[in-house]
Design a protein that fits this description.
There is one protein chain. By secondary structure, the chain is α+β, with helices and mostly antiparallel strands. The protein has a domain of 166 residues. It is built from eleven helices and ten strands. The strands form three sheets. Strands 1-4-3-2 form a four-stranded mixed sheet, sandwiched between helices. The chain has a three-stranded antiparallel sheet with strand order 5-7-6, with helices on one face. Strand 8 and strand 9 form a beta hairpin. Helix 3 packs across helix 10 and helix 10 crosses helix 11. The chain is globular.
Length: 307
Amino acid sequence: MKLLETVRPELIKVLPTQNRDMQASAELQTMGIGKLVTLFLNWRDRQVYSRPRKVLKSAEILASIEYEREELRCRRLFAKIASGQDLTLHLSRRTRIAYLSQAERKKNKQRPDLDLLLNEWGIHHLHLSEADPATGFAKDDNILLFIVFKNDAAHALSLMPHGEWMNEDLVSVAVHNWPEKGLFHKLVGALPEQALLPKERSTLRRRHINYFCSVDGQSYMSDTGGLSSNGTSSRSVIQMMALQRCCNLYDEQPDLLSKQMKEEANKIGVFWPSRPVFRCILINGVERLGFGIIEEKSGVAVGISGL
């Protein structure tokens, strides 16, 4: 069995389907491993990994009427972010759905398994309310916090009504407040796109077609790389391909993998078996849930960086 294929059972175990749909589960079992990994990366990036972050607030959010009205709830949420508390209850209920069966996709055109705002622009939206006991998630709010999470910081962009998914002011706020952070990359030499109406931009996004955002006459694109043809972020596809290349290399050169893993075993004083057995696994990293390789007899495991 190919090394990458060995992670399939773990991926299927962690990926939630809508109402535990049996057809969706069956489709995951037969899905190509590259597509399955991309699906996992898409779902993983919709979550917010629990770790302390510095909360950076834009000048626009602090000066807004919405912040004046919602300051208490914002302060509570910012405190949770700063202390590294679990933010799951403030996310959309749709984050419970990682995959829809083909039959469900025909009935549900909205695709709750995809967050196109996040995948194209790298922006999460959080509900300000506390948890609803009936659902375990925050009660629906008309005003949402639009925010970009990085490993060590959370960039609070704006408070906007539900449905402002196409509002390019979000991009402008990110660029003007944190130009050095690279939340959006300036595309040198790219001409600004023709101004589009929100409805037109929405049509492009639903069809998974990227367009450049214009800020001060310059074109910008998110560090997610925009959307892929299947609606995930291009970054997820690139990471999947990197994982494939890594595992393919070790399939072709098993002695290289054995040598590297044996060196790790020697560092921690673990006996190395004469016939090692390797498996690709999910592993909790410092930043997020990622991928690693374990030698099953010795228990020696290492993470694969960059994923």
